[in-house]
Every structure is written in C-alpha cells, then in structure tokens.
Amino acid sequence: GENVEQHPSTLSVQEGDSAVIKCTYSDSASNYFPWYKQELGKGPQLIIDIRSNVGEKKDQRIAVTLNKTAKHFSLHITETQPEDSAVYFCAAPSREGAQKLVFGQGTRLTINP
Amino acid sequence: DTAVSQTPKYLVTQMGNDKSIKCEQNLGHDTMYWYKQDSKKFLKIMFSYNNKELIINETVPNRFSPKSPDKAHLNLHINSLELGDSAVYFCASSQVQGSGYTFGSGTRLTVV
Fold first, then answer.
1. Mean pLDDT lowest for which of A89-93, B10-14, B51-55?
2. Contact, A14 vs A77, CB < 8 A?
3. CA nearest B32 in A: which residue?
4. pLDDT for the residue numbered A97
5. Would you tell me how many other CB atoms lie within 10 Å of the CB of residue A56?
6. DSSP string for A56-95
7. With contact defined as beta carbons under 8 Å apart, do B43 and A89 qualify?
8. Residue A98: band (very low, low, confident or very high) from pLDDT cuts 50, 70, 90
9. B37: buried, middle or exposed (CB in 10 Å: 19+, 13-18, 0-12)?
10. Tens digit of pLDDT for each residue in A10-66?
11. How far apart are CA A40 and CA A53, in angstroms?
12. Cis omega before residue B8 (within 30°)?
C-alpha cells in the first residue's frame, strides 16, 4: 500500500520568509497529491492539490511541486504571515482496493512575528 | 451552511460506556469517511462508505460500528469505550473516492 513520509515535523520561520515542507510517497501509480492545512480546533482544509500530469501549481503565495521520478512533492509558502501558522498535511491515494487518502505525519508550522 | 457537520464537537465519557458520533454532508458527495487523529496529530482512516455501502474497513476493533442510513449521513457508534479510544474523530466526504476530501470540524472524544 501507499506510504507517505513528511518532513520536517516542526518548522519555525520569520514572518515574510518562505517555508518549504516535503513529502515522499511509495506508490509510483499515485496520481493525485493534495495538501491540507489544519488550524487549532478545526478539521483539515484542502489548500492546494496537484495531479501527476503537471510538475508545478501555484495559487497566490502557495505552490506545490511534484517530481514523479523521485516520488516526492513539496509545499512552498512565500511571504509567510502569522495566519499561516498551522499543521500542514500532505497526502497521496492508496490504490489498493477502494481508494483512500494516506496522510503524512504532519508539519507544525510556526510563523514568528 | 456547513458542508460536513459532526455532532457532538466534544464528548467526555467514562470507560465502558457506549457513544455515537453523527456526521452529515450537504455536498451531494457519494463517499464518506471516518478518520481518527491521535495525540500526535496522525490521521488514520477507519471506515469508508460509498453510496451507503461499506467499502473500507481498516483494522479497527469491532467495538466500532459505522452506519450509513443514506449517502448524506455516516454515523459512528462505539461500544465499551476504552481509554485508548480518546482521540479526535473526523468525518470527511468526497465526490471521487480517494480525492477531494472535505472534512468536518471533528469530535474530540475523551474517555475517563
């Protein structure tokens, strides 16, 4: 089945700097890679996703890059703001049997003012 | 309108009790899920239903029993609660299996 590894587990950056979170996956057939943001006391919220037919996708200050050969994908947040502080999760679909998302271990991002 | 709503938000109960968590989605999605988030924030799937039919049942104690009366509802009943069941339980839905999840706000279950 799919195995998703996420690094780092915690990340602290100065406001205005960039943050990068990386994930690797094991199933070369995986074709969909979402990123979720979880704020305190709330459920994870989809912030950006990428399909395997493209290498990069941007949405304002956030971007996701995908390297299918190396089986890793990354979340990039530029010009970080205090409201970016949250736990971020990557995920990839497990294609064994019925499809489900397998999540990385999460990264706690703290933006220091 | 909340897309995926769970009730209750908090649940504190004693060991050995039986409790239920309810989930409803108004997105018209065909697939619903239950995930468990432990104290280290790890999200692990428990169950998935597609149009009222159980399609994923991970290695979960049979004290946990999901029920889907219709495709907009997926409830979770837990018998004989144990201390280790304490966690946050998230309901989610998607139109396509394995992608585009919308999560509820979670139910924090504390067993004392």
1. B51-55
2. no
3. A100
4. 60
5. 12
6. EEEETTEEEEEETTTTEEEEEE-S--GGG-EEEEEEEEE-
7. yes
8. low
9. buried
10. 999 999 999 999 999 998 888 899 999 999 999 999 999 999 888 999 999 999 999
11. 33
12. yes
Which of A101, A102, A109 is the best residue to mutate to test the B interface, defined by the most B CB atoms within 10 Å of its own CB?
A: A101
Tokens 């994923």 locate to B56
Radius of gyration of chain A (CA): 14
A2, amino acid identity: E
CA of B15: how far to CAs of A79, B38, B81, B84, B90, in Å? 47, 18, 5, 10, 21
Residues of B in contact with A34 (CB under 8 A): 99-101
Query: How far is the C-alpha of B69 from the C-alpha of A69, rounded, in Å?
Result: 43
Residues in chain A: 113
Distance from CA of B47 to the nearest CA of A (A): 10
* Strands A107-112 and A86-94, sheet pairing: antiparallel
The reply to whether omega before A8 is within 30° of 0 (cis) is yes
User: pLDDT tens, B6-35?
Assistant: 999 999 999 999 999 999 999 999 999 999
Query: Two tokens at B10?
Result: 């908090």
Q: How many CB atoms lie within 10 A of CB A15?
A: 13
* CA–CA dist B32, B28 (Å, integer): 11
> What residue of A is the nearest CA neighbor of B90?
A43
